[in-house]
Amino acid sequence: MPVVLHQFTVAVGGVMNPGYLEALELARQCATHAHTQALPGAGIAHGSCWAALATVPNPGAGFPLGNAVAGGAALPYGVVFGNSRFSIVGAFAVVPGAPAVGFSGHAERNALVVAGGNGLVPYGLVAPNAGDWVMYVQLHPCVHCLPWLQGVGGGGLLNPFAGLIAGAQNLHVWYRWAHNPLGCAAKDTWNGLPLATKLAQINTW
Ligand SMILES: [Zn+2]
Question: How many angstroms separate the alpha carbon of residue 44 from the centre of ligand 1?
Answer without folding.
Answer: 17
